Amino acid sequence: MNLQCAMQSAGTSVRSGLKRIALFVLLILASCAGLYAQTQKVTGVVKDTQQLPLPGVTVRIENSTSAAVTDINGKFSITVSNKNATLLFSYTGFESVKLPLSGKLQVSVTMKDQASALNEVVVVGYGTQKVKDLTGAVGRISMSDVTKAPVLSVGESLAGRVAGVQVNSADGQPGSAINIVVRGANSITQDNTPLYVVDGFPIEGFNLSLLNPQDIESLDVLKDASATAIYGARGANGVVIITTKKGKAGVPVVNANVTQSFVSNIKTMKLMNSYDFLQMQLERDPTAGSAVAPTPTYTYFTLPGKTLADYQNYPTTDWQSPFFRTGSLRDYYVALRGGNKQTTYAVTGSIDDQMGTVINTGSKRYQGRITLDQAINDKLKVGINANYSYLKQFGNSLAASNNSGTSNVMYSVWGSNPLSPYSETQEVDATTNPANDYKFNPVINQENMVRNVNTAALNVNTYLSYAITKNLTLRVTGIINNTEIGNESFNNTHTALGSPNSLFGATNGVNGSVSTSKNNNWANENTLTWDKSYGRHNLNVLAGFTQQGNTSNMYGFGAGQLPNESLGISGLDEGTLIPSNTKATSSLWNAQSWLGRINYNYNSVYYLTASFRADGSSKFAPKNHWGYFPSAAAAWRFTEEGFLKGNKVLSNGKLRFSYGQTGNNRVSDFAYLSSTGLPASYGYSFNNTATASVIPLAIGNPDLKWETTTQYDGGIDLSFFGDRISLAADVYRKTTKDLLLNATLPTSSGYSTAYENIGSVQNQGLELTLSTVNIRSRDFTWTSSFNIAFNSNKVLALANNQESMLSSPQWQNSWFSTPGYIARVGQPLGQMFGYIWDGNYQYSDFNRTATGGYVLKDNVASNGNNRASIQPGDIKYKDLNGDGVVNSSDYTVIGRSLPIHTGGFTNNFTYRNFDLSVFFQWSYGNDIQNVSRMVFEGNILGNTYLEQFASYNDRWTPTNQNSANYRVGGYFGGGYSSRTVEDGSYLRLKTVQLGYNLPKGWLQKIKVSSIRVFASAQNLWTWTHYTGEDPEVSTYNSVLTGGFDYSAYPRARTIAFGANVNF
Description:
Blueprint: H1 2-38, E1 40-48, E2 58-61, E3 67-69, E4 75-80, E5 86-90, E6 97-100, E7 106-111, H2 114-117, E8 121-124, E9 127-130, E10 138-141, H3 143-146, E11 165-169, E12 178-182, E13 195-198, E14 201-204, E15 216-222, H4 225-228, E16 239-244, E17 250-265, H5 274-284, H6 320-323, E18 327-339, E19 343-355, E20 362-375, E21 380-394, H7 409-415, H8 442-448, E22 450-467, E23 472-491, E24 511-534, E25 537-560, E26 576-602, E27 606-617, E28 626-636, E29 650-664, E30 675-677, E31 684-686, E32 689-691, E33 695-698, E34 707-720, E35 725-737, E36 740-744, E37 753-757, E38 760-776, E39 780-797, E40 804-807, E41 821-824, E42 831-834, E43 837-840, E44 846-848, E45 854-856, E46 875-877, E47 892-896, E48 901-911, E49 914-924, E50 927-930, H9 931-936, E51 981-983, E52 986-997, H10 1000-1004, E53 1010-1024, E54 1044-1045, E55 1052-1062
Parallel strand pairs: 1-7, 13-16, 50-54
Antiparallel strand pairs: 1-4, 2-3, 2-5, 5-6, 8-9, 10-15, 11-12, 13-14, 15-16, 17-18, 17-55, 18-19, 19-20, 20-21, 21-22, 22-23, 23-24, 24-25, 25-26, 26-27, 27-28, 28-29, 29-34, 30-33, 31-32, 34-35, 35-38, 36-37, 38-39, 39-48, 40-41, 41-42, 42-47, 43-46, 44-45, 48-49, 49-52, 50-51, 52-53, 53-55
């Protein structure tokens, strides 16, 4: 009984234990099944609205660091730990998609193009806005198009990209400054470049070469007053907002870009050969063929016993051949970007090495950038963006000098004797006399001149963003920008400026100079933003306080008679001080601003924007410290009205109107104060002893105040057929008054110029931008973008009721005081001024003397030369006032430097893995004063034995009286004329790029996300009537003297090959 009970009890215990074990096993299996269920693979495909696959889309699990990227076919695979997870899809240019899985393991996603949805975000002052919500005129530059140009600086590829934005540079020298003007020039004598805002930091005169184009995320141009007025006193010339790339949440992505470019001159000038050159010299001086020289040092061209006929096949030296070369541009760029929900980062670096087409010219750039954004919690976010750039530009600037061929390099290259054989050692052309600086071997001179400009720039931008409430955000930004520019110049004995040969006027022997300028800029910006919707009412309010300061100093010295030229710049301390090169200056300015803006819209149909900014600047006297700049704008999206909503033809329509005032304070830091100095060349005698003394340098003006620009803008935005066609049109008028004009003073004042608030300028124009999606199919797409801008500029008033103001380009000593441009009330700025060319004097203009000579008839006006010296074949000008003598009273407008319209036309094609981009850019209606022709198509300077362009072979002779060119020696050097004013209009095939994306199947084997190889070309072809090297030139880059071409560095054609790799 007990045994039975015991067995029964044991059986019960075993069964109970087995049940526990079975239950435990089931729990483990269930747990494993759960674990298995938590790591399931989700696959899918991402397409656009045309059902074309989208490669490169980032697929991320919400609240996780796990992410994937779609392949070339738009497919992806990602492992999820929860079948109810939410996937986030993001891709540049498309609206983000948030997709709950809800247990699905296969998904299909369609992403909308932001452009077609009007939800593309543009950066505006102190914030961002969607395109559909804009009330102002903002131009966005497609960085995907811009970066296809093989250039060092983004500025070199901006021309023609945005309507109303005119871009030019002095010439084609590597690293040369880019001049950008938005909607015409406001100022006459002051800077017209826009304000640059780089990652929130406002910088005037920013050097775009310090940024690698690959680092730029977006570039937006604020054009009308409602967009720029938030920058108040600094927004009158427009605002260019540059935002650099940051890290993105997701797996780390490494991007590398390598480009190798080959650079060559677009055009070189055709020069006379030896025979033609000698024939010209014999026309100038028939005795030049004599075998007997008048002095022992004087050598004639023709050798004893030789005549002109003997030089028919004589060798010709074209000095352009050894002077120019095939240049290069190598660009190496690498970036690491990534992050998670809390932290994103980006680290980039680049090296650019450019060799110019002129020997011993080029530039090198080294750049590094670190960006870090950290979300401390749900309310607080901090970040830092630090960039360091070092840019070295080397080589003599071809248009740098303003007085002689020694530094106007092309003058010596074009002017050198073609009869002299090229030599790598012979420095001076001994075959002709008198010696001039163009007789120094230009190749040896260029190879030995040291001209370095070294720029180091550090920019650090930190911010703190705190969400005080759900709708109220505080943002505090602190920024520093330090720039140091070092200039080095050295002339050894193998240069014209350092030669011991006294014929070249190099009185300082071996010499050099150094200078350093430092700019320390800081800024603090504090803004509060309230963003709240009340039903259909949407309100965004911004209020802020900003402050900024700048300190700058410059010092330098020069020395000559250096005993040891092998030391180069390092030996300057052993030489004799050159007083004119010794300098030291220091300056500073500070600014404070209060600002506010209200953006309101009702149901995304009716929009109102108002802003106000008060700016205080230390550049003005205390009574004029503050300036006040309001703006207002309104817009109506009429396609959201019931009577048009859902329309299948007109998919979007918006009317815009804006008004606002902006300012300008771009004068020297203490222009309101008079200044004194201690120049080395001045002094007074006390007790028969010369004593250095202080003298007045500049007269101040305590009444200086803000220059103010008032602008009205009206625009319309239209989209058709689901945004397949988009049109934006703007008309504007802006008037600038109280111009900060550097006015000329009476000589009795003892000063030459002083700043005054006088004068007024008006710009008005029309801007059109058309974008189309021409074809979009599974394998092929074709999109186009066209823009054109018309701007009319007019001077409304000048200083002291003057009717006109003359400007004299400083290109050569003897022409310093010769006016070449005029600004006249009622007419545009930058008009060329001079005589109207009237061909050449013919035999019919003369009476014959008894001795067979020629005397100008009494009813024929002289050309400014003595009447008795004028001969048939001399240049002839129109006597406008009919007094029988051509002089300055006969000066008139002979050309316009400002174009009638400018524009650009882009076409982008894709076919499967191939893509092609073609960009045309043009300028129409502007003229160029081709001063190079004045010198090398008639020798207006009268320099003996100066080589000439081959076009001067066709000149007036007794047997060729119908030629447009005057006879040898038939010039008049007293002024500019319409003879050398040429049509500067051009159409340029600016950029072409062909790319190919390698198939994904190939790349998976080497674990690479994407590889794109490409070939690019810049400045491939130009259609123009201009006879100079390049029509895209303005040597002095000034609104007063635009379109001036002399000794410019030739613009280059670039052919590039490269690859872009993503890991």
